[in-house]
Amino acid sequence: MIRLLIADDHAILRDGLKNLFAFVDDITVAAEAADHEQLLDKLKQERFDLILLDMNMPGLHGVDLIARIRADDKQVPILILSMYSELPIVQRALKAGASGYLTKGSGGAILIEAIRKVANGGHFIEHALAEQIFFAAGVTGKTSLRHEKLSKREIQTLCLLGRGDSVSEIGAKLNISSKTASSHKCALMQKMGFTNNADLVRYAMENGLTDES
């Protein structure tokens, strides 16, 4: 029996998933969480065979939450079930430690298949997303995404710039000085080959980097 922890801040979605799994013999919803605090508390209390995780919950979320889970438990498989289908977000989730990624538009049969595979140590990526990853990598396996050469702090700065934040606002949000934030901005623009803010913001928006920091 696969003991599942569902982490999503929408109760109606959690209820729908529980109704779906009620008809599946080898999957049971052992616990649920509406935010990162509940999720981390549940992980301290008991063991699960898989975490079904939303990418956008209140508080700590996304790749930062995946990294936190991995810091506490390196073994529990994580399957992302998200509304986001942008390639950079998918790649960052997998790189952070998720073993699979599905969008919320996936059918129930696909979700059940993914849970079984990931819970048993495998990987599962929704077909359309897997195609995007393959073609983005190209024949040589080299990614065409400029921002992957950036440091974590530079990516955070890029995300906030994409949202329209000023250097001073970025400094406040990242708890660094405006001067340091400005240095990160200059460094990332140089690494990515941008000479003006408009191109940088356009890149962030086109690559889904304004959805999370």
UniProtKB/TrEMBL annotation:
Protein name: Response regulator transcription factor
Annotated positions of the 4-aspartylphosphate modification: 54
One GO BP annotation of this record: phosphorelay signal transduction system
Domain (Response regulatory): residue spans on this chain: 3-119
Pfam family membership, one: GerE
Domain HTH luxR-type intervals: 143-208
Annotated Gene3D superfamilies: 3.40.50.2300
InterPro entries: CheY-like_superfamily (IPR011006), NreC/VraR/RcsB-like_REC (IPR058245), Sig_transdc_resp-reg_C-effctor (IPR016032), Sig_transdc_resp-reg_receiver (IPR001789), Tscrpt_reg_LuxR_C (IPR000792), WalR-like (IPR039420)
Molecular function via GO: DNA binding
Native source species: Candidatus Methylospira mobilis
Sorted UniProt keywords: DNA-binding, Phosphoprotein, Transcription, Transcription regulation
